[in-house]
C-alpha cells in the first residue's frame, strides 16, 4: 500500500512540469533544473507509488494510466497547498479575515465598487474575493457554501437563504437616437416587442425577467444578439443592431449624451430589488457578519438619501 506521507511536494511539482511539456529535457529547461535532478524526482515518485508513471519515447515522454491518475491528484494537492500558503501570507501581513463575495453584473457595475471601498477602508484587516456570476449561480453557491455572501436579483428563488435588501435599481429602455421610439418619454415593455433586442447572455436574471414579461404579454422576445457586458450591449445598440433594457445607473452618461436615448419603462417589474444573502456555513464568521451588516445597512442609507 502506498504511504501518503512519502510524497514530496517538489517532486509533484516536477512531475507536473514534465507532464506539461511532455519532455524531461524541456521540463529541466523551464524549471531551471538539471536533467539528472528531474530524472531523480520522477524515479522517487515511481518508487513511492510503485508504478511506472512515464513511458520514454524518441521525442519525449508519455504518461501511463497511473501517470494520468497522479497528474489529476497532484494538480489538486498543489492548488490546495498554494491556497494555504496565500492565506497564511495574508495572516502574516495582518489580514485577519477573508470573505468570498459573489455578485451579479448589475451590482458590480452600479454599487459595489464604492461600497466595498468604504468597507475595506474601515476594515483593513479583511480581504474580499469578489466574483462576477449570474444570480442563479450565486444562490446555488450560497446554498452549497461555496460563497460566503452573494448579491443577486429579486426574481431568483432563494428559499432557505438569509437575505436582506441591498439596493433598488431602475430598468430603462435604451434605443438609438434615430430610432422610431426615441421620442417616447415612457413606454410599456409590450409595446417594444416588435423590435429586435440586444440582450445579456443566457442565464442572466435580467434576460429571464424580459423573457417572462414577453411570455406574459403573449409575444416572443426577439433577441438578435447576446453580450456578456452592459458596455457591450450599449455599443451594439449604438451600432443599430437592436434595442435593449439595462439598469439606468449602469449606462455611461457620455453614451446617452451622444447617440443613445433612455426611456422610462412603465412596467412594475422595471423597479427591482437587489438582495444580499449569506451562506448558513459562513454566518458564524465575524468578518462575514460585518460585511453582511454593512451591505444591508447601505440599503437603509440609500433609501433615506444618505451620502454614499
From TrEMBL:
**What is this protein called in UniProt?**
GntR family transcriptional regulator
Q: Which stretch is the leader sequence? A: none
UniProt lists the family membership as follows: Belongs to the LysR transcriptional regulatory family.
Please provide, in alphabetical order, the Gene Ontology terms of the cellular component aspect for this entry: cytosol
Q: What's the domain of life for this entry?
A: Bacteria
Gene Ontology MF: a single term = DNA-binding transcription factor activity
* Native source organism of the sequence: Paraburkholderia acidicola
Check the record and name the PANTHER family matching this protein: HTH-TYPE TRANSCRIPTIONAL REGULATOR YBHD, LYSR FAMILY TRANSCRIPTIONAL REGULATOR
> Domain HTH lysR-type, which positions?
7-64
Q: Which UniProt keywords apply?
A: DNA-binding, Transcription, Transcription regulation
CDD domains on file: PBP2_LTTR_like_1
Pfam families on file: HTH_1, LysR_substrate
Mind telling me which InterPro entries this protein's record contains?
A: HTH-type_LysR_regulators, LysR_HTH_N, LysR_subst-bd, WH-like_DNA-bd_sf, WH_DNA-bd_sf
